[in-house]
């Protein structure tokens, strides 16, 4: 299986662990990731916040590149995007560049652009679940987690084209498929504060503290994510957030791809986890994983 | 006696806002569902439903100088839940753009600096190089000084060192062939031509 791939800027840097886990499981699953040649930043929150045109055209350039032939073959039908914000911006651009106002932009899309996939929804499709299930060697027995989806993978539904946006199930299905228990909880899509970790860190402390409190209350041992921004905000400041809340938050924050890798017995999985700040190993050891 | 304010409506202003959209603001029936789901309403001086109300009443100065449009995290909860499909989050973006064009001082200057430093980084290389983006932002926004004064810097420094030890930073920025294209694209968009 071959797909086009748009990693996005943070997967080249602070989210290298996420990038390696995606590459690692795709290799095992025989999925070839063809990176869009010469891709650029999607513009992220900053572009859409202060310049609408820049936000559509920056993201649009990548869509155009994704329609070019790959290695002398046809362009792939699917474009896989691990960062939910990149996914959201690429989808928004596709809608704008195909909509009523398309002639106002200085980028034109060809008739067919690949289908843009947020990575958790991609891996939660039936055929992908079956593909992974065939490779599961160490089911994550007794692993109790909550799945945290954040904002951009599912909202707004007209952009994300997701039906279960208030109670998404993609990560929950992926967890069940590798033998873990995904506990139902009410904060699946509540915001983590995103880029305000830099500009208004107190917002992140408040929002993430709420998430931890609820995760503990429902008996989760861990939180599973598919977004590197959520991962960073939940993983990196636990000591500080605990101090501000007067509580003890100590919870490993895993990318779902890392857990798929563990379940499939990919040897490098432990190396991906070593990039985390909140200790991811103690829990796994306790569960004999 | 409660304090009273007199508002002089300007029913034309909404057309100007909508020209950045359309956002469909005129369908608002003030149910407040947007505000009830907003994760940062606690920090806003005007709540999301009030923003829409003020927009319909044409309260230009109040809207363009409020802190809410900058405090909004663009989580899209309001837009998702509005029964009238009003694009509230997108309208907030339009207001930020209008405020910048009108030269109105930003009440949350570090947020504006964050966006500008980020896009400057994109302009330079086509992709964001996190280390230089964060360094420039910390200096230019005054956050470095604030953290130093508030005693928060040591947590961040320790975290930064830990991240470096774990190999989480890219030390050499990647550059793209289409750099010139990106520069031209941003120059055009920022030359007052963002509005469609
Ligand atoms: S949810 Fe929509 S209709 Fe209700 S107050 Fe907000 S903008 Fe108005
Ligand atoms: S998009 Fe902004 S205004 Fe709307 S709910 Fe989220 S933070 Fe609040």
Distance between the termini of chain A: 29 Å
Summed over residues and divided by their number, the pLDDT of chain A gives a mean of 96
* Unreliable residue runs of chain A: none
Radius of gyration of chain B: 20 Å
Estimated helix fraction of chain A: 40-55%
Strand percentage of chain A, roughly? 5-15%
Helical/strand content category of chain B: mainly alpha
Major protein interface: A-B, 57 and 65 residues
For this structure, what is the CATH homologous superfamily of the largest domain in chain B?
Alpha-helical ferredoxin
Number of helices of chain A: 15
Which hetero compounds are present in the coordinates?
Answer: iron/sulfur cluster
Shape descriptor of chain A = globular
Proportion in helices of chain B: 55-70%
Mind telling me the C-alpha Rg of chain A? 19 Å
* Average pLDDT over all residues of chain B: 93
CATH class of the largest domain in chain A: Alpha Beta
Characterise this structure.
The complex is a heterodimer of chains A (289) and B (196). Chain A is an alpha/beta fold and 289 residues long. Chain A has two domains: 2-121, Glutathione S-transferase Yfyf (Class Pi), Chain A, domain 2 (Up-down Bundle), CATH 1.20.1050.140; 138-286, Rossmann fold, CATH 3.40.50.11810. In chain A, 46% of the residues lie in helices and 10% in strands. Chain A is built from 15 helices and eight strands. In chain A, strands 2-1-3-4 form a four-stranded parallel sheet. In chain A, α4 (84-98) links the parallel β3 and β4 (115-118). In chain A, α1 (16-28) runs parallel beside α13 (256-263) and α2 (44-50) crosses α3 (52-66). Chain A is globular. Helix content of chain B is 58%, strand content 0%. Chain B is globular and about 60 Å long. Chain B has twelve helices and no strands. In chain B, α8 runs antiparallel to α9. Chain B starts with 12 loop residues before the first helix and ends with a helix. Chain B is mainly alpha-helical and 196 residues long. Chain B folds into two domains: 13-102, Alpha-helical ferredoxin (Fumarate Reductase Iron-sulfur Protein, Chain B, domain 2, Orthogonal Bundle); 109-190, no CATH class. Chains A and B meet through α2, α3, α9 and α10 of A and α6, α7, α8, α9 and α11 of B. The structure holds iron/sulfur cluster (2 copies).
